[in-house]
Amino acid sequence: MKLDLNLLRVFDAIYTARNVSRAATALDLTQPAVSQGLTRLRNLVGDPLFVRAAGGVVPTARAQRMAPAIHEALHALESAVQDSAGFNPAQAERVFRLHMTDIGEDQFLPRLITTARLRAPHTRIETMRVPLDDLGSAMDQGRVDLAFGFLPGLKSMRSAILFQDRYIILMRKGHPFAQRHGARLRTLDAVHTLDFITVRTHAYTRTALEALDAAGRVQVTTEHFMALPALIEATDLAVIIPRNIALSFEPRGRYAIIEADLPRREFDVGIHWSHRYDKDPANRWLRGLALELYQET
């Protein structure tokens, strides 16, 4: 079977867009040209690959199996070509893939996207959440360009510190506890008088309470940080979270930040990348941009 690389690009674009017209726009081709390419690919593999659905198309089981390998192969080829030619941000056409949590997207994405669009207008940014056990191999394979956050498990990766953070206790501004203790907790015994929220995707929100023998004070567990503002405003619950996240909530003026000598409360937030891409021009450019925007000096 002889495969035209352009047919794989057509497949990847349709799989991503789930719509032939949008795929044509992304590829800067006409819709008939994309449809013709899809027909050729269907004949080559002996499968319809995509079937009509409301608003566009959906992949067949065969297409679902093919998609990850094709996506990774195209990304590897893009990286190889750009590596040999250098990286000119003003002209480069490149998709950068970043590992970020939901709160990472909130903290990092707005400024990163705004600046990248100005300096590298033909690049795109995609975020994803890769299980930590798979993140190192994903970066080695080029499926993830950079990982943002506090990721002590990535010991085999290169990294650079963006800023230091620490955990605090957050609650609503009118909480009786905040009015009684102020902005600094003198003794951690007082923690046992609070009821807490924990965040399933951020283990420290619970492990800190376990270390303080206060796990029994957990009343609510939520999946993500973004649910916290409404929960805290409406209840007398508290949460242990990074101070920078708390500050992102604080402009609403409805929260009390309480400093406390929590166990292992200080940590570094950084960017992480694979040794294999340490000298990759595009990766180096993106790292430099992240350091410029977020590194504390």
From TrEMBL:
UniProt keyword annotation of Transmembrane present: no
CDD domains the record matches: PBP2_DntR_NahR_LinR_like
Keyword Transcription appears in the UniProt entry: yes
Domain of life: Bacteria
Pfam families: HTH_1, LysR_substrate
Keywords linked to the UniProt accession: DNA-binding, Transcription, Transcription regulation
Domain HTH lysR-type: 3-60
SUPFAM superfamilies: Periplasmic binding protein-like II, Winged helix' DNA-binding domain
Family to which this protein belongs: Belongs to the LysR transcriptional regulatory family.
Protein name in UniProt: LysR family transcriptional regulator
Organism: Castellaniella hirudinis
Organism taxonomic ancestry: Bacteria, Pseudomonadati, Pseudomonadota, Betaproteobacteria, Burkholderiales
